[in-house]
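Field log, afternoon session.

UNIT: design team B
ACTIVITY: writing a sequence onto a fixed backbone
BACKBONE:
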């Protein structure tokens, strides 16, 4: 028997044909001696019927019945038969093969499956087992329609990227997986060298330095579907290894890079959905993003914007605000309009949000409600009627509206406010699930300065081109982020191509000359041999696809992901290795206890 068709292929035009299908027994049932099987493969599901009363002449019904008794769930089987129309009234409109069925004439068990640990059919809510069980048996989980579709979308997405990049003269170039450990923000995974005991390679956190050196090497336009490795705690949208579309271009400005990415996304969109996407994307400055939405990756699918009240309340005789403003902090408010939220959030809910505000890193949460034309709350007594009126005006507060006020240091307060804004939008069901709001976050700083130690750190990474003199009070960075629905899809920038300036930036972030030389000497040297002006970006492919598919975590769009504890439950890695292997590497073996592999109770951290 040789497969003639897949399980997703047969239609009414095929009625009368003799076919052979091979696939997995997803479901079988016996209706008074007539057996029905749902035979599944990657392409679909076809109904197979075995009716002992209705078999071609010469069929050995007994032997066929015996064979079919072995057709346990998820066994892989081969069947031959005749395509026929389903009995009137039993067609399945939701299944593309649902008008026909195959009447068995021959059957063979190719490989019997053990009883699967969970149902693979299309699941109703709540029937699926927890994620760890699915990942432990991911090869079974992969057979589910939803997961098959995720893999298909991913494959198509990557194919479309390659098509577009190729059309636009980009060269696909692979960069090393074993390379030098260079600080890029996260912890490296390190790999011991056997040939040179005591030395290590690092797995790349991204191909950043190599792609820049490709520009020095005149490659002009480079891209790669690059695997990146970062040893950080797993979260919803992170895991130890992930895939980026990494690219770099020479002789460009920021707009050229952004135009290329917009063109790419429009192309991929058309390829996936057949529709046009609106470009150019909206641009929003970092300061405005933070002060309006409390986030450097704002979700624009809903309102709930913050309004600054720092000036409005600066003379209010309210101690808490005075102290905060005196220390250079801010006060801002969010207006929950009566029709959207104000009336739905009662006194108890307000207390709940006050409790949550602490979790979001806010010092507290002040509220005021607009009642009988005036702002009312437990603290309005500390404000003059004039200031209250100004707050009301500034916030556009009308009857029934509820105001939440946040106050504290600029960054942490807006960030906490952003988390509160998101929580409110979720609780009030204000987020349209099907909308896609892309935006470029622009006008970013080059450095972040620790308010306590005064220490400089880079906002993106140290290779970003500063936009003004490094000794200026504020230094802008020629960098930007692409965001979608409150998620950062990727970061890009123009790069420093002058070794002297690159060294200055390293110094600015506290590296001494010796450290610069050890970590980046080779790179500075490369910049010294005619590095062209260049820039680029990297987009997180797993994250992008998971958002498009409405998945909660990137793990759903990765064939074999690690779990929340950075463990692969499927192959049991990370694992101990034999002592002789360690000896060869001259690594001392430590006796360690059992590894905590996580489990159903392990949770994602935001
Ligand atoms: N290498 C950077 C990252 O992975 C992206 C870039 O600047 O191209 O975030």
């Amino acid at each position: 028997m040789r497969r003639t068709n897949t399980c997703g292929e047969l239609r009414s035009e095929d009625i009368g044909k003799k076919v052979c299908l091979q696939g997995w027994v997803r479901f079988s049932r016996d209706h008074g001696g007539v057996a029905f099987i749902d035979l599944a493969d990657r392409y679909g599901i076809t109904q197979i019927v075995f009716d002992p009363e209705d078999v071609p002449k010469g069929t050995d019904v007994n032997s066929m019945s015996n064979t079919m008794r072995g057709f346990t769930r998820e066994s892989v089987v081969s069947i031959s038969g005749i395509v026929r129309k389903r009995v009137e009234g039993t067609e399945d409109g939701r299944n593309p093969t649902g008008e026909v069925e195959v009447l068995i004439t021959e059957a063979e068990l190719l490989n019997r499956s053990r009883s699967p640990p969970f149902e693979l059919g299309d699941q109703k809510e709540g029937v699926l087992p927890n994620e760890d069980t699915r990942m432990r048996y991911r090869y079974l989980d992969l057979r589910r329609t939803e997961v098959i579709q995720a893999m298909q979308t991913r494959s198509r997405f990557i194919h479309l990227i390659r098509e577009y990049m190729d059309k636009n003269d980009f060269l696909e170039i692979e960069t090393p997986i074993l390379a030098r450990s260079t600080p890029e923000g996260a912890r490296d995974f390190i790999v011991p060298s056997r040939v040179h005991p005591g030395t290590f390679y690092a797995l790349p956190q991204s191909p950043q330095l190599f792609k820049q050196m490709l520009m020095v090497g005149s490659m002009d336009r480079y891209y790669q579907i690059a695997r990146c490795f970062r040893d950080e705690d797993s979260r919803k949208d992170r895991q130890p290894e992930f895939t980026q579309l990494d690219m770099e271009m020479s002789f460009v400005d920021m707009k050229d890079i952004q135009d290329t990415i917009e063109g790419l996304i429009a192309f991929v969109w058309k390829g996936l959905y057949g529709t046009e996407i609106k470009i150019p994307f909206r641009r929003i400055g970092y300061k405005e993003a933070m002060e309006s939405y409390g986030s450097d990756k704002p979700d624009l699918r809903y309102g709930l914007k913050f309004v600054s009240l720092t000036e409005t309340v600066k003379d209010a005789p309210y101690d808490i605000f005075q102290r905060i403003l005196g220390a250079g902090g801010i006060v801002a408010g969010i207006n929950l309009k009566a029709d959207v939220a104000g009336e739905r959030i009662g006194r108890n809910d307000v207390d709940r949000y006050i409790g949550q505000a602490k979790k979001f890193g806010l010092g507290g949460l002040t509220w005021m409600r607009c009642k009988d034309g005036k702002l009312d709350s437990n603290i309005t007594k500390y404000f003059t009627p004039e200031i209250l009126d100004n707050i009301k005006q500034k916030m556009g507060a009308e009857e029934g509206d509820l105001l939440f006020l946040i106050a504290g240091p600029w960054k942490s307060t807006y960030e906490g406010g952003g988390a509160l804004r998101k929580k409110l939008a979720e609780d009030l069901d204000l987020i349209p699930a099907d909308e896609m709001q892309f935006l470029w976050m622009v006008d970013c700083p080059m450095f972040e300065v620790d308010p306590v130690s005064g220490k400089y750190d880079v906002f993106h990474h140290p290779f970003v081109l500063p936009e003004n003199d490094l000794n200026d009070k504020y230094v802008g960075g020629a960098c930007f982020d692409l965001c979608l629905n409150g998620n950062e899809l990727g970061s890009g920038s123009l790069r420093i191509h002058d070794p002297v300036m690159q060294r200055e930036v390293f110094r600015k972030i506290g590296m001494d000359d010796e450290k610069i030389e050890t970590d980046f000497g080779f790179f500075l040297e490369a910049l010294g041999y005619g590095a062209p002006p260049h820039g680029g970006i990297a987009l997180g492919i797993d994250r992008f696809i998971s958002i498009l598919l409405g998945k909660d975590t990137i793990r759903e769009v990765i064939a074999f992901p690690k779990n929340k504890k950075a463990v692969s439950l499927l192959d049991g890695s990370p694992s101990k290795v034999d002592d002789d292997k360690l000896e060869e590497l001259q690594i001392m073996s430590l006796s360690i206890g059992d590894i905590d592999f996580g489990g159903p109770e392990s949770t994602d951290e935001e």
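LOG NOTE: Residues 163 and 267 are 9 Å apart (CA to CA).
NEXT ACTIVITY: expression trials, pending approval
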